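Handoff note, outgoing to incoming analyst
You'll be picking up this chain. Sequence as last confirmed:
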Amino acid sequence: MNSKSRYELAASVCRGKVWLDNTALAAISRMYRKRIENATSKLEATVEQGRYASFRIDQALDHPKASRLVLQQMIASLEEVIGQLFIFEAGSRINTNRYTCLISQFREKQALAKRALEHSDKNNTPEVFV
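Most recent structure output, in case you need it:
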């Protein structure tokens, strides 16, 4: 799976299973969890956790019966990731703002999920704002 397709939402539903670029959603989730587990540094694990949370938000917003709980968990996860990235940025000997782009991307994804939660209807179906 190339890096571009990892972040583009190209999922399709086939026989009750969600696929992204011919890979089952469960396999993609396992891949992200493995990347987090096998990270060689706290920074790498933090970035991978943010990417995983962003991916899960995209999937939840694309699914018509998205779980509010999943969105809430991923919003909280991104909040933690953003806080950790600020700590890494503050601890950097040379202030290069190299985490600014990641923080911005994660904040945008978090805001999208928050808006979907705020506008969800009684049927537990968030509206998607793109």
